[in-house]
User: Fold this.
Amino acid sequence: MGNHRLCSDIDNLIYDLEKYNPGDSNITDIRSDADCVHNDGFYFFNLNVHRTLILIELDEEGEATIVWAGTHQEYETTFKNNKLTIEKWLRKNGYVN
Assistant:
């Protein structure tokens, strides 16, 4: 069976990312849940009903790469609700210099 609402929210995120064109708009214009956590194009998206967070890198062409996904509790454990901790994690894992 699975979780229909979570699957639907993921489908909506994918749809929004597919239609996103960085030359035309900012991702925050399309997704109110987009939270820029690093200037190199890293955003957290909060699938709010489910408390699921997804860290996505968006490049200059709008190509999206999922970097991390987990529950809000896993987010707090890994990133401590802190952008400096997020940046350290990105560096440690080779996503930024």
Remarks:
- The two ends are 42 Å apart (CA to CA).
- The helical segments are 4-19, 27-30, 72-79, 83-92.
- The chain has four helices and four strands.
